[in-house]
TrEMBL record:
This is Non-homologous end-joining DNA ligase. Keywords: Ligase. Residues 29-287 form the DNA ligase D polymerase domain. The keyword Mitochondrion does not apply. Its EC number is 6.5.1.1. One of its GO terms (molecular function) is DNA ligase (ATP) activity. It comes from the Bacteria. The keyword Ligase applies. The gene is ligD. It is an enzyme of class 6 (ligase). It holds the Pfam family LigD_Prim-Pol. Transmembrane segments: none annotated.
Length: 302
């Protein structure tokens, strides 16, 4: 396979390189780019206007992996950049607003894509901090627990959110847990974090054998940790449809779920999706998490 292949993606010129490079033991860079091209229609709405961070690995799973918040070197000049002010000071982040941007990121070995629960143009609070347009409840199984326990907890969380007028979608993390997202009207960070923490503590009190709301790892054995802190402005979560840098023959992948899949999960294998199966799901059914991109579904916190 040639070292470099020029392509046009929706009118943008991209020079794809080293397509035969093996990134996972049974998966090449060409397969990674093909996957992202196939799911782009469903994935890009979850990335649009959100400053992206990446887990990059130019040598794949056999080489070093590193978190990249700055714009990767060699980025095409047409990629959109926004400045984000964090604890380390201001940084320029890429924003993947369209299919060419997503393919360009994959070409730069951005194996995983992570985004915050706010958008670059979504408004600011009185302290000039971004207003959040999503609530995330990160369900993290402790030692001895699996994604089946996460599904049990997800149904409890869904009921609590519904009682407060919030719709939500379930997405596998692509590793071992679940993420639940609810679209919000623009809301200050403190209100979202406070709501998520109260929700986690309420469920932990009601279901102490199943749910834990504290971060202490020794408390998580056999339980599901509801990580409410992921709603902080500085935090990001793996984007729906992103690949994951798993030490497996092919990558793990974050897949939106139907609620019937959550309700019927009997073993981790039920929710273990391959990139090929996720791309096929998108082709057949569209985006099971489309509610997150529907402005009409956004609600105010109680």
């Amino acid at each position: 396979m040639p070292g470099k292949v020029p392509v046009q993606v929706d009118g943008r010129a991209i020079l794809l390189s080293h397509l035969d490079k093996v990134l996972w033991p049974a998966w090449s860079k060409a397969e990674m780019i093909d996957y992202y091209a196939r799911v782009a229609g469903a994935m890009v709405p979850h990335l649009r206007d959100r400053p992206a961070s990446f887990l990059r690995g130019p040598e794949g799973m056999t080489g070093p992996l590193f978190v990249a918040k700055n714009v990767p070197p060699g980025s095409p000049s047409w990629l959109r950049e926004v400045e984000v002010v964090g604890k380390e000071g201001p940084r320029q982040h890429l924003v993947l607003d369209d299919t060419p941007s997503l393919i360009a990121a994959a070409n730069m070995y951005c194996l995983e894509i992570h985004v915050p629960q706010w958008t670059a143009s979504g408004g600011r609070d009185a302290d000039d901090r971004p207003l959040h347009d999503r609530l995330v409840v990160d369900l993290d199984p402790g030692e001895g627990a699996t994604v089946t326990a996460c599904c049990e907890v997800a149904l409890l969380v869904r009921a609590e959110l519904a009682a407060d007028g919030l719709a939500c979608a379930a997405v596998t993390s692509g590793v071992k847990g679940l993420h639940l997202y609810a679209p919000l009207r623009p809301t200050p960070e403190a209100a979202v974090v406070g709501y998520a923490k109260t929700l986690a503590e309420r469920l932990a009190a009601a279901h102490p054998a199943l749910v834990v709301a504290r971060m202490t790892k020794s408390l998580r054995r056999g339980k599901v940790f509801l990580d409410w802190s992921q709603n902080s402005t500085s935090k990001t979560t793996s984007a729906p449809y992103t690949l994951r840098a798993t030490h497996t023959d092919i990558p793990g992948v974050s897949s939106p779920l139907t609620w019937s899949e959550v309700e019927g999960c009997a073993s981790p294998a039920d929710l273990a999706f391959s990139p090929e199966s996720v791309a096929a799901r998108v082709a057949a059914d569209g985006d099971h998490a489309s509610v997150l991109c529907d402005a009409a579904a956004a609600a105010a916190l109680p």
